[in-house]
Amino acid sequence: MKIEIRELPFAPWEALQRYESEIVATRYPGKFGASAVFVGSMRDFNEGDEVRGMTLEHYPGMTEQELGRIVDEARERWTLLDELIIHRVGDLLPNDPIVLVAVWSAHRKDAFEACRHIMEALKSRAPFWKKEQLDAASRWVEKNTDGY
Amino acid sequence: MTVKVKFFASLKEQMGCDGATVEIGEVATAADVWLAASGGKALPANVLVAVNMEYCDPNQQVSSGDEVAFFPPVTGG
Which residues of chain B have a CB within 8 Å of the CB of A59? Predict the structure, then answer.
């Protein structure tokens, strides 16, 4: 399991490829038959307004702990080999990747379901907060919608 | 006893600071800590509470040296 909070922009597909080849393929050669991935990126619209940029705040320490607890819970429900979570904080622009959740397992059911579960739990429990920059004002995003 | 209080996001802006060190009686809940730190304001219904970086009920007892955090609904991902 790797959980990383990043202050600077990142390339999720490169990070994914690197983690799989350097870590997963080394630890579990021939065992990972399934990988499921979610990448969330910044939109330029929300609630009918154009959004120019965004600042993401987090609770250092608790964020990493809560994400660790979420992954531990997923490991109790599904049979998983490895997990990678990367989440941005700081200033973002439209198109910037915000979050990467990747799960490796032997079979697709575990990978698909665990990836979805981790992402939805992250949205509802991990202590991050978004502040949107509009043309002439900024506003806090008040809550995340249920993804199910 | 002394506890460390933290505020985040919109709550940090409303409170005008990111936290404080609060002196409070020996038997106190997280909600009591909020009252002491906020100058007696009611705890907003949607505010989340964490003690030592774990979510908890506002009625949870706190101990000396605890870190008690208050923040709005989370919006990551």
Answer: 6, 8, 50, 53, 69, 71
Chain B: give the shortest CA distance to residue A84, in Å: 14
Q: Considering only CA atoms, which of A54, A73, A75 is closest in space to residue A126?
A: A73
Query: What are phi and psi for residue B3, nearest 5 degrees?
Result: -130, 155
pLDDT at A44: 97
15-54 in chain A: CB under 8 A from chain B: 40
**pTM for this prediction:** 0.97
**Closest CA–CA distance from residue B24 to any residue of chain A (Å):** 24
pLDDT band at B14 (very low <50, low <70, confident <90, very high): very high
Work out whether the CA dihedral A138, A139, A144, A147 comes out positive or negative: negative
Mean pLDDT of chain B: 97
Question: Measured between beta carbons, which residues in chain A are less than 8 angstroms from residue B71?
Answer: 59, 127, 129
Q: Rounded to whole angstroms, how far apart are CA atoms B25 and B1?
A: 6
